[in-house]
Amino acid sequence: MNIIIVIFFLGILVVLHEAGHFFMARVLGMKVIKYSVGFFKPIFTWQSPKTDIIYQIGAVPLGGFVQVKGMDPFEEGAYTDRDSYQMKSPFKRALVIVAGPVANLVTAWLILFFIVTLSGLQNVVDKSVVGVVVKDGPAYKAGLLKDDVVLSLNGKEMKTWESLANALHENPDKPVTLLIKRGERLQNITVTPDNVDGQGLIGINAPTENVSLPPFKGAVFATIKIKGVLKDTLTGLLELVTGKAQNVQAVGPPGIVKMASSQLETGMASFLAFISYISLMLFLFNLLPIPALDGGRSVFLLYEIISRKRVNKRVDATLNTVFFFLLMGFVLFISIKELIEG
Q: Based on the domain organization, do 28 and 91 belong to the same domain?
């Protein structure tokens, strides 16, 4: 059931991305021929009797496309019909191209906004209380439980999470005795913190509480969060290109579904936050300057605006076709690898 829910939400991201292209094309007077979620042979098709637009679901659900009249430069009427993509100004064509990624950016922002204003943020509570016990960690093995109140450590009074964490950090590989209150009962528990880079850790996290933000603060938070994730991701891409990044591994659809399923098990808020992140990654990925992606088409349009010359239509069509199959092949390779490795 989790996998079905995950695929449904990921499918919505694709639908919204293509909807960006779809509505912008129609607003700017371009004829839309087909709206497809997925590629290759359709398993579902419906044609609107009013607009003649074909809506379909492809057999391979890896992305989608909107077929706009004239986007194929060899199509009949591409350079003569008024409702053709090729007959519009470079600026209008660019708006259609970037509308898809922008739809994903807006989706990511809206998800974060509604999470922090409706569900709320998980804020750390500075109390000497066990919030989470990591399975198989020293605290778990010693018998500590969630919501245990730590009154003292080796006889020293503990009042805040910071004081408890600092005291544990100072005792790597040394047994410590915790006086805890569990309900109305007091008991001593002895635990030996693991030595992690010189700090003592027993596998517990701070208690948290949900704090909902008012709409204005929620909007500011979502904007700052989006900006931070974009900055970190672009920095990571730059390090990857320059060879500074190490142990970077590509993730395909099966890997994304697996991670999303894991987030769903922790709660809907965590799951939706992950979906927001994936939507943001779709925004960035589609704007990469690679033919067959929206970013590659944008580069061609930028060249046209600067040089006032169109890219040779045969070069345009060939590059987009070749890179499309290269990208599909790469995604298929990563997906098969992930399925084999489990």
A: yes
